Each structure stands twice: as C-alpha cells, then as structure tokens.
Amino acid sequence: MTEKRRNLIIRTVTGILFVAIMVIGLLNWIAMIFLFAFITGFSIWEYSGLVNAKQGVKINRLISTVAGVYLFLAFAGFRTGIVNNFVVFIPYILVILYLFIQELYAKHEDALNDWAYTMLGQMYLAFPFSLMNILAFEKDPIDGFVHFNTLLPLSMFILLWINDSGAYICGSLLGKHKLFPSISPGKTWEGSIGGGIITVIIAGVIGALSHQLSTSTPQLSVLGWLGLGVVVVIFGTWGDLVESLLKRTLKLKDSGNVLPGHGGILDRFDSAILAIPATIVYFYTIEIF
After folding, report:
1. Is the pLDDT of residue 262 over 80?
2. Segments in 175-264 forming alpha helices (H)
C-alpha cells in the first residue's frame, strides 16, 4: 500500500468517526453540553500550547482552559434555566481579573503579549463555542419551558461540512484563481463559489424538509434557510482563513495532530468559530425584522 493511499484511508476513517461523534452529540442536550465543553477545553489547551511556543509569550495554559470551559458551562446553565441568576458568570469574571493581575508577579518577558494572547483565546474560542448554547436552547414563550433544538446547530455543521467538501472538490476540478494566496494558497475562487452554491442549495432542501416534518422552533422560511446557507458559506470561509492566518503568524502547518489526517481541533472547527456567532446574529436579525 502506497503512503498516499494509506494517508487517504486514515483521513477518511477519521473523518467518518468525527462526523458520527458530532451528529450523535448534537442529538441529545446532555451529550451536546459534554461534547462542546470538551471541544472548548481541548481547543483552548491546543491554542495555548501553540502560542506558548512563540518566543516572548507565556500564558497560563491551565487557568485559560478552565476559564473557557467554565464560560461554556455557565452559558449552558443560564440558557437551559438550570441557573437563573447572572451570578453564575461571576467566577469567570474573577478568573479573567486573575489572568491580568498575575502578570504583575510573573515577571515574564512581555506582559502585553501574554495579556493579548490570553484574551484572544477567550474571545476567539471560549466565547464562540459558548454561544452554541444560544443556538441549541430556546425558551418557548407559550409554555415557558426551555426546548433543545437539534435542527439548528446540526444543520449549521452539516452546511459547514458540505461547504468545505464542495469547495475542495470544485477547487480540485476547476480551481485556477487563488482566493487568498498570501494566507491560504490552496483555496480558489472557483472552489469557494462552487462549494457555496452547493451549500445554499442544500440549505434550501433542509428548509423545505423541516417544514414538511414540522420540526421544533425557531422556524425559518425556505428563503430564510437559503439566507442561512449564504451566512454559513461566507463566515465559514472567513473562519477558515482566520485560522490559516493564525497558523502562518505562528509559522505552523497544522494546529496539532490529535485527528490523524486532519490536524488538530482548531483545524476541524476553524470554520465554525466565526459561523456560530454569525448564525446567531442572523437568526435574531430575522426575528427582529
């Protein structure tokens, strides 16, 4: 067996297992909370290790990871109604204050770099992943109960995966014009446009099926689902490019090797990091207007 074929098999098996775990995790509210708490923690741990390898940077890897996981769980508790008081966020605020104050005593080479990279980890990873709870849980104004909505978060990830796969296939077959050659030389306009068209079509199909099956709220029109497809394509692509810029800044090819053939956790969730908050903004904008 050639090395190329072996790598393809490893990549395929890893991809199938990854998708299976994600789908199973998004079908149950308890599984979803545990899964994304783990993803949040692992991504911050991975990120912290990468930036700590940069000369002049030394952030508190353990405390940063614990803070990010706590923020996710606090959002989950608040959104599900398990905790109805804002006091649940107080420990997170205290930890953030600690991460600033510790630099007074740490005597590291560059405190400004430490602060910047520490807060970037929280804003870039902990906050977007915590917002998954906004997508997944919604309080019904009629009965007053909090309902877990599988459709929205699962559909968002399906559209992200379709966009990535479609862009890769279309780019391989038709790609000629580079999208961002200085950041991601492999991406092309042809691939991005082709993947985007496929994704928007699938979004419309999901919307049509959701109406036929009378899925839980919030309910979008088919046109609204097409708009969601556009949002996921644009911000998913930007999310991919942002992570590519991060890796280039740190002079890295992959964020890690925890997923054979796919790199690290950041490599797998780069598109979602911007797509999650963008999807929430889109849904609430639809509700307002």
Report:
1. no
2. 189-213, 222-249
